[in-house]
């Protein structure tokens, strides 16, 4: 538990740097571009992150899961790198299809379509899940935090340069693309410093041959990651498709500020997953304590959003973004719920129940996307935020029910074994 809290501390310090610098580049982008052009920018970023999220195989989980076994991290890393190559191929096809069709369903000007496609390709090439997994496998959270800090620093510097010399959507997209490349290079350098990368081990077949359930785990975590993207980036794209670029820009700002807790939830999940894998006997107790701490932290964060949210929105993004205050508060509540559920979801995945975690996440996410148009017709951006809140609440309840069921199955098996003995 002490090591877990120390690792969370490292990750939170990185999030703190990211949070401060994100306010800088968010303020520069919104005030330089205005709500409509910022909407175009938000749609392009969402396209890139959607493509990456759909194609990414969450390889850090494979490195942690199989790299801790006696044969070492070589084969697990080789499998992860092979999956990264596969992700780039699949992602490029998805990017081409989305950008080609964007003119029919997204409010993006024609001259920005190639910008969007270029950003998608850069995002795919800059995927960094595998080196992140290597660092987490060795509990090198401090080194990982230092490498990840490159992204917000480069992004903030790029935003300043864009505001001064290229105050256009293209200028800010170039800044974001440069940050993606820089952080990927930094993480690979940090991982290679600690662990020699053996490229002769790259293979899609070795790990599945030794672990018959490997591909099921691969696709389950990939689909879970895709659903996580669906709850955020696809939501921004659909909000833009339904309401226009101004709605997309407003929802992006509300989401970035209101759902900072979702980022914190991902931080907790990333820190606790290796610990749950290594300490199966104490996993339930560890997850329960983390969920209790998350409940307190989430409640405090929602209170801060209620009291200071409107002032923060207008101070950072400008007065025209003050209209998204209630959407931001609703998304903050959703983030608090996700924060509580982070350790529960990690517990399911670490217990080999990635498929269960996927199904529990899938139904609420799909339901939210299906209800989005009606929700926006009912209450605009607040309605869109309510679909996110409902999805998060249903998913966390589902994780809790699934864990209780697993515990009951475990108790029943133990009693039967005792009876046989």
Q: Could you walk me through the main structural features you see in this protein, from its secondary elements to its overall organization?
A:
The protein has 421 residues and is mainly alpha-helical. The chain is 86% helix and 0% strand. It is globular, with a radius of gyration of 21 Å.
DSSP summary, beta strand count: 0
Low-pLDDT segments: none
Helix content: over 70%
Question: Count of helices?
Answer: 16
Summarize the helix and strand pattern as letters: HHHHHHHHHHHHHHHH
Shape verdict: globular
Strand content: under 5%
Instruction: Tell me the major beta sheet.
Output: none
Tell me the structural class: mainly alpha
What value does the Rg take, in angstroms? 21 Å
Compute the average pLDDT.
Answer: 84
Summarize the structure.
With 421 residues, this protein is an all-alpha fold. Helix content is 86%, strand content 0%. 54% of the residues are buried.
Topology summary:
Elements: H1 2-55, H2 59-67, H3 74-105, H4 113-125, H5 129-137, H6 141-148, H7 150-165, H8 169-194, H9 206-210, H10 214-230, H11 233-243, H12 245-258, H13 260-278, H14 283-316, H15 325-350, H16 354-420
Key terms:
421 residues; single chain
């Amino acid at each position: 538990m002490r090591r877990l809290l120390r690792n969370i501390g490292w990750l939170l310090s990185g999030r703190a740097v990211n949070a401060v610098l994100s306010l800088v580049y968010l303020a520069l982008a919104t005030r330089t571009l205005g709500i409509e052009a910022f909407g175009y920018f938000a749609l392009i970023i969402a396209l890139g992150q959607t493509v990456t999220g759909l194609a990414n195989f969450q390889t850090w989980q494979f490195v942690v899961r199989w790299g801790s076994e006696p044969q070492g991290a070589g084969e697990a890393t080789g499998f992860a790198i092979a999956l990264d190559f596969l992700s780039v191929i699949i992602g490029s096809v998805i990017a081409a299809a989305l950008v080609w069709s964007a003119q029919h369903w997204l409010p993006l000007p024609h001259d920005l379509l190639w910008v969007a496609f270029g950003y998608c390709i850069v995002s795919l090439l800059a995927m960094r899940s595998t080196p992140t997994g290597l660092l987490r496998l060795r509990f090198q959270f401090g080194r990982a935090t230092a490498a990840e800090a490159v992204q917000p620093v480069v992004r903030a510097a790029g935003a300043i340069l864009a505001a001064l010399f290229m105050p256009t959507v293209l200028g800010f997209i170039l800044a974001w693309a440069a940050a993606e490349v820089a952080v990927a290079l930094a993480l690979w350098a940090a991982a290679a410093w600690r662990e020699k990368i053996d490229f002769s081990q790259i293979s899609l077949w070795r790990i599945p041959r030794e672990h018959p359930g490997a591909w099921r785990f691969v696709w389950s975590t990939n689909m879970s990651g895709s659903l996580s993207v669906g709850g955020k980036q696809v939501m921004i794209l659909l909000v833009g498709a339904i309401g226009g670029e101004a709605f997309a820009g407003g929802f992006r700002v509300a989401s970035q500020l209101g759902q900072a807790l979702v980022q914190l939830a991902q931080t907790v999940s990333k820190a606790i997953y290796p610990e749950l894998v290594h300490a199966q006997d104490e996993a339930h107790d560890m997850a329960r304590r983390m969920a209790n701490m998350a409940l307190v932290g989430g409640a405090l964060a929602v209170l801060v959003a209620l009291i200071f949210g409107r002032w923060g929105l207008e101070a950072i993004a400008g007065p025209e973004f003050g209209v998204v205050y209630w959407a931001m508060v609703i998304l903050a509540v959703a983030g608090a719920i996700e924060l509580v559920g982070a350790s529960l979801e990690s517990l399911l995945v670490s217990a080999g129940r990635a498929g269960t975690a996927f199904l529990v996440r899938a139904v609420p996410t799909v339901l939210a996307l299906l209800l989005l148009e009606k929700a926006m017709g009912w209450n605009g951006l607040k309605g869109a935020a309510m679909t996110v809140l409902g999805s998060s609440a249903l998913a966390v309840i589902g994780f809790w029910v699934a864990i209780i069921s697993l515990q009951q199955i475990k108790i029943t098996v133990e009693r039967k074994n005792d009876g046989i003995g």
